[in-house]
Amino acid sequence: MRRRIAIFGATSAVAGEVCKRLATHGDRLFLVGRNPDKLAALVADLGPAVAGSLALDLTAEGAGAQAVAAATAALGHLDVALVAHGLLGDQLETERDFAHADEILRTNLDSVIALLIPLANDFEARGGGHLGVITSVAGERGRPRNYTYGAAKAALNTYLQGLRSRLWARGVAVHTFKLGPVDSPMTESHAKHALFSTPPAVAAAIAHHLEGRGGEHYVPAYWRPILGVVRALPEAVFQRFGFLAGR
Ligand SMILES: NC(=O)c1ccc[n+]([C@@H]2O[C@H](COP(=O)([O-])OP(=O)(O)OC[C@H]3O[C@@H](n4cnc5c(N)ncnc54)[C@H](OP(=O)(O)O)[C@@H]3O)[C@@H](O)[C@H]2O)c1
Predict the structure, then answer these.
(1) Distance from C-alpha of 179 to C-alpha of 138, rounded to nearest angstrom
(2) pLDDT tens, residue by residue, 3-24
(3) Residue 85 Cα, ligand 1 centroid: separation in angstroms?
């Protein structure tokens, strides 16, 4: 079946790979991204699968409602929506300057809720579809390395938990994609280790789950048992491990 799909934050490395998979599958896409040049390049790359696009800063006043309205107008209705944008930012800067902490909270939490309000209401009224949001394993436990970003993603995880239980009776699948570290522009300056994944691998898992049952999906799946252990560690133990509690 040819689905009608809106991708918010489409120019992210991960979302771009998801778009390629969906276009190959024959789906019709509406893309929202902040950077007009990157968005135009992606639209050109995807060809006729793209029904429309909109360049928009999703933290701007009214952007969430505007983006959802544009996608719905272009596609008629939405079968699937994926919210992918995010900002890791500079943790040390957030400890000095609330303006940067606020930018991280607005990007990873407020602007996502601004999209989810109209999306959830539309999907609820139609009685079906898949709503996916990319969060992070950073939301599972506060770490000195990224706790401002982690706090925003943790709040988003809780929001999505509630939304999933609100919408399940209407047949709407809400997917929380808890990504581990991915080799993308977001982690350009980070030292890579064996548990890093790649945008194509992560995109394959996201595209697969968007056809299945809603829930919390760890991507890649090996993060589920790892995070089970990390969450269970008492703080006094956690703080002794530099690879967990270090900067
Ligand atoms: N990479 C990782 O290790 C990792 C781990 C866990 C979770 N994640 C999550 O995965 C998702 C995709 O990230 P990625 O790895 O693909 O990184 P990325 O390539 O850096 O993508 C981040 C995207 O977010 C967009 N964005 C940021 N602020 C925005 C705003 N105000 N309005 C609209 N778009 C905005 C950026 O737009 P511009 O192109 O205009 O900058 C960029 O396209 C994010 O939600 C991220 O938090 C990533």
Answers:
(1) 9
(2) 999 999 999 999 999 999 999 9
(3) 4
CA proximity to 213, closest of 167, 149, 245: 167
Q: Is the pTM of this model over 0.85?
A: yes
- Which pLDDT score, from 0 to 100, does residue 164 have? 98
Residue 241 — left, alpha, or beta (φ > 0 → left; ψ -120 to 50 → alpha)? beta
Closest C-alpha among 233, 237, 231, 235 to residue 218 = 231
Annotation says 149 is catalytic: yes
33 forms bridges with which residues in the sheet? 55
| 133 Cα: distance to centroid of ligand 1 (angstroms) | 12
Q: Whose CA is closest to atom 18 on ligand 1? A: 12
Per-domain boundaries in the chain: 4-245
CATH for 4-245 (3.40.50.720, 3.10.129.10, 3.40.50.1110, 3.40.367.20)? 3.40.50.720
Each residue of 217-234: pLDDT tens digit? 999 999 999 999 999 999
